[in-house]
């Protein structure tokens, strides 16, 4: 392990630990989650008005989701094509690492979400539903509701693009940083869309980002052993 990667790994480990503690506190306290949810909640109708917005559902949910899915699909096709297309061969490792990281991160988030006992804001009694809110890692309430809402699945598609940062950090540092900024921006946008619709709390999306980040970091470390990267010229 060279000194540059050791420094990078140390920063990531410390960052993951500190963010994990912060996100745990936010999810267990609930105050910030509820304060932000109330910004989009109409107490007179006991509902989230934007939940029934066709425009937000189409552009903010369907289109953005398809956009991130197609990024992964195109990367996968390019990865396969790199076996024959000369111009893609230098990108083969990066494409492979990106696809593996993004797919694993998205799968992890969706798996956890599918087994979650935490309900969405629109299902919670404070916001017109019937479920009772309870803190992350806390005792499950008797009226926990339908669950299936932690971590944020929609935002994970945007955050998963950060796999490109890890895949290109050694060979194309400037492009890698641009991809990281883009990933965080699109992930944040997808997070706000779901919060506005009453589909997720802020902490759900923060944990989605954390899980994607941690997955990419761990896979990156393993890939350096299995498939060492080539340094930039």
From TrEMBL:
Name of the protein this chain belongs to: Phosphatase PAP2 family protein
Ranges for domain Phosphatidic acid phosphatase type 2/haloperoxidase: 96-219
The UniProt record lists the keyword Zinc: no
Top-level lineage group: Bacteria
Keyword Transmembrane helix part of the UniProt annotation: yes
Transmembrane segments: 6-27, 66-85, 91-109, 175-195, 207-227
Keywords annotated in UniProt: Membrane, Transmembrane, Transmembrane helix
Signal peptide: none
Organism (species): Herminiimonas contaminans
């Amino acid at each position: 392990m060279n000194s540059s990667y050791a420094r990078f790994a140390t920063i990531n480990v410390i960052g993951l630990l500190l963010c994990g503690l912060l996100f745990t506190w936010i999810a267990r306290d609930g105050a910030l989650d509820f304060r932000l949810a109330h910004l989009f909640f109409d107490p007179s109708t006991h509902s989230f008005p934007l939940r029934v917005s066709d425009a937000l559902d189409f552009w903010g949910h369907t289109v953005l989701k398809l956009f991130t899915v197609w990024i992964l699909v195109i990367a996968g096709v390019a990865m396969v094509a790199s076996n024959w297309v000369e111009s893609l061969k230098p990108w083969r490792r990066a494409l492979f690492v990106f696809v593996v990281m993004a797919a694993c991160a998205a799968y992890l988030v969706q798996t956890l979400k599918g087994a979650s006992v935490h309900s969405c804001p629109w299902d919670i009694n404070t916001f017109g539903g019937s479920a009772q809110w309870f803190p992350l890692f806390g005792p499950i309430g008797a009226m926990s509701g339908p669950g299936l809402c932690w971590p944020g699945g929609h935002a994970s598609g945007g955050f998963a693009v950060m796999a490109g940062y890890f895949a290109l950090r050694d060979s194309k540092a400037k492009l890698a940083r641009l991809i990281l900024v883009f990933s965080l921006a699109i992930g944040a946008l997808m997070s706000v869309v779901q919060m506005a619709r009453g589909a997720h709390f802020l902490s759900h999306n923060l944990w989605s980002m954390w899980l994607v980040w941690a997955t990419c970091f761990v896979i990156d470390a393993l890939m350096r052993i299995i498939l060492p990267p080539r340094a930039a010229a």
